[in-house]
Amino acid sequence: MDYNIIWFILIVVLFAGYVILDGFDFGVGMIHYKGKTDLQRRININAIGPVWDGNEVWLITAGGALFAAFPHVYATIFSGFYIAFMLFLLVVIARASAIEFRSKVESPKWRNIWDFIFHLSSYLIALLLGVALGNIIIGVPVAPDMEFAGTFLGLLNPYSVFLGLTAILLLRMHGNIFLTLKTDGEYQQQFISKIIMSEIYFVIFYVILTIWTLIGYPHMTANFSNPIWYIFPLLVLLAIIYIPIAVKNGAYFKAFISSSLIVLSNISLAGVGIFPNLVLSSPNPENSLTIYNAASSQQTLENMFIIACIGVPLVLIYSVVVYRFFRGKVEIDEHSY
Question: What is the tens place of the pLDDT at every residue in 7-47?
Fold first, then answer.
């Protein structure tokens, strides 16, 4: 059993789980500021209120798994991307503060300030996640001693920024679909009417990004000699086609599953494309950090795998129970945000 490959897959799954679950939170935040009344904005926040902090557990778990399984990657990324990660943490904290503090004071001005912070931080988090993925795809300067040899401004290259913008459009659509599940009546119709247009914007950017990737970074297709990996682009295509059909038929949960599949498939595509690298070194590929030269000992990977076989199902069960318990439409009461 190759534990290096297993842990690569687990980390991809954990990060995908985070982006799917916290991704619709970000999408709700992007839409939130367009709420015309305080009641509408409270509905937006309470739609994610019971789950948003639990969704972030997936990020903590993914980061912990990366640290334990591939410590050299963790060290290189977190030291090299230090400014970017500090900015990411800042906006994550700002977003959490906005959710918690918004309703603490009965003042329209107070609430409007926190609403704007919630709105802006949601955009920035999605952008930063996309930029990070873009740099993983195209590669970053890595020295022979596994140290990051680039700069913060170097991370803001055109491809990565464009991928960040595409991520914003995808997660905004994802959040829009989620709000159709949590609202009803006239307010729900506002979200339903915007799904198709939000998907069109995403598809335009996604097609451009795909062409850019295929032409500019052909190494991302090197592993696709095995036809089994074509399942991911096929899932993306089918999900994009099915979302308008599901919306037209009122099957909003199926539309949400479809947008989740788009997120999962694209992160999986990135994983297949960079494998066996975790940090691709550019312009010196021989300095790349792979699942073998950056991994912990085999004994560590094996012991962690045993623990993961116990822990990951518990996290999944917890998530299913929480989402099932809080399913249904948002109801505002004195205990709401």
Answer: 999 999 999 999 999 999 999 999 998 888 888 899 999 99
Cα–Cα distances in angstroms (integers) from residue 319 to residues 30, 97, 141, 180, 253, in the given order? 24, 23, 38, 20, 17
Is omega for the bond preceding 276 within 30 degrees of 0, making it cis? Answer: yes
Q: How confident is the model at residue 337 (pLDDT cuts 50, 70, 90)?
A: low
Cα diameter, the chain? 60
Going by C-beta distance under 8 Å and a sequence separation of 6 or more, which residues neighbour residue 221? 214, 273
Distance separating alpha carbons of residues 111 and 174, to the nearest angstrom: 25
**150 neighbors 292 (Cβ within 8 angstroms):** no
The confidence score (pLDDT) of residue 92 equals 92
Residue 206 tokens read as 């996604």
Nearest to 209 by CA among 134, 275, 286, 292: 134
Residue 299: is its pLDDT beyond 90? yes
What secondary structure does DSSP assign to 63-113, as a single string?
A: HHHHHHH-HHHHHHHHHHTHHHHHHHHHHHHHHHHHHHHGGGS--HHHHHH
The span from the CA of 121 to the CA of 94, in Å, is 7
Residue 229 DSSP label: G
- State the Cα–Cα distance between residues 69 and 65, nearest whole angstrom: 6
Contact 128, 102 (CB under 8 A): no
Pair of tokens at residue 244: 């308008």
What residues does 148 pair with on adjacent strands?
A: 142
Sequence-distant (6+) residues with CB within 8 A of 267 are: 12, 15, 16, 19, 133
Angle at 105 between CA 101 and CA 107, to 5 degrees: 120
Token pair listed for 81: 């991307």
Q: Which two tokens stand for residue 114?
A: 């926190």
The token pair at 141 is 């300067």
